[in-house]
């Protein structure tokens, strides 16, 4: 294997860094990272495309980033291409559509900006990168996740659970992707969402054939939800990022800019963030 960085590994690292609200401004302000993510919207590996989109979706949660992201060369056109591409998976098209709508309607009131800033401050107290080896990811399909008010209720419920590391919402498909400690049962998330009285969660898993299966949580579950009484600044995290050794390196053919950007992004990660 050559010494070139793995496209999926680099994009995943940027995605995980973008999940932390404290990193989002730095990533967008960097000269190469945002343009590099856009470049990978057209990557032949659908996992790279989805991971790049998810990273951009995280970045778009910071309202201060949106105008710059919208004006970035190729951003809106590339999102449209993903949405219209016949080979794009349905979930990828929905995510691209959600990002496009957010950036297209990037103007907002001062009240909305204040609310977003407060939300970022709350989340910054417990968000981690995606490299914690003692963590697992749970995808929730949430019935009733219809608007920002319901989302806030959901956030508050998840914030109270001891063992939740981070989460992100995909409002277009009424889903929440939650990273939790490996010793926390997924049923605890379902119990917490049900405690809102207006929403109900089900778990989304992959079947053997790759299709999605939605599994309801037991309504009479006796799982005890241990709550955070005093949130620490950060939960403990392993310093070494996990590597997906089974993923093959995908070359970009004649897209030499993409190959060179991988090295640029890898250098950006190493010089700008502490793992």
TrEMBL record:
Query: What InterPro entries does the database record attribute to this sequence?
Result: ARM-like, ARM-type_fold, ARMC1, HMA_dom_sf
Q: Which UniProt keywords apply?
A: Cytoplasm, Membrane, Mitochondrion, Mitochondrion outer membrane
What's a Gene Ontology MF term here?
A: metal ion binding
Superkingdom as given in the UniProt entry:
Eukaryota
Q: Where in the cell is it found?
A: Cytoplasm; Mitochondrion outer membrane
Gene Ontology cellular component annotations, sorted alphabetically: mitochondrial outer membrane
Please explain the role this protein plays, according to its UniProt record.
In association with mitochondrial contact site and cristae organizing system (MICOS) complex components and mitochondrial outer membrane sorting assembly machinery (SAM) complex components may regulate mitochondrial dynamics playing a role in determining mitochondrial length, distribution and motility.
Q: How does it assemble?
A: Interacts with mitochondrial contact site and cristae organizing system (MICOS) complex components IMMT/MIC60 and MICOS10/MIC10. Interacts with mitochondrial outer membrane sorting assembly machinery (SAM) complex components SAMM50 and MTX1.
Protein name per its UniProtKB record: Armadillo repeat-containing protein 1
Q: Source gene?
A: LOC113042474
């Amino acid at each position: 294997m050559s010494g070139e960085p793995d496209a999926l590994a680099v994009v995943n690292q940027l995605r995980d860094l973008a999940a932390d609200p404290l990193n989002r401004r730095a990533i967008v302000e960097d000269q190469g990272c945002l343009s590099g993510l856009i470049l990978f919207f057209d990557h032949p590996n659908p996992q790279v495309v989805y991971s790049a989109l998810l990273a951009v979706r995280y970045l778009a949660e910071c309202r201060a980033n949106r105008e710059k992201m919208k004006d970035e060369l190729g951003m809106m056109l590339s999102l449209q291409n993903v949405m219209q591409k016949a080979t794009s998976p349905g979930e990828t098209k929905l995510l691209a559509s959600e990002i496009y709508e957010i950036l297209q309607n990037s103007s907002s009131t001062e009240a909305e900006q204040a609310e977003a800033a407060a939300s970022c401050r709350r989340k910054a107290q417990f968000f981690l990168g995606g490299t914690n080896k003692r963590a697992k990811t749970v995808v929730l399909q949430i019935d009733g996740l219809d608007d920002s008010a319901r989302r806030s209720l959901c956030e508050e419920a998840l914030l109270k659970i001891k063992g939740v590391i981070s989460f992100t919402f995909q409002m277009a498909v009424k889903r929440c992707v939650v990273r939790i400690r490996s010793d926390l049962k997924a049923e605890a998330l379902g119990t917490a969402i049900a405690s809102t009285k207006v929403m109900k969660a089900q778990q989304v898993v992959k079947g053997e054939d790759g299709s999605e299966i939605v599994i309801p949580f037991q309504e009479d579950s006796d799982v005890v939800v241990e709550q955070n009484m005093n949130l620490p600044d950060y939960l403990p995290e392993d310093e070494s990022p996990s590597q997906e050794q089974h993923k093959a390196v995908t070359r970009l053919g004649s897209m030499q800019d993409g190959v060179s950007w991988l090295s640029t992004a890898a250098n950006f990660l190493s010089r700008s963030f502490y793992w």
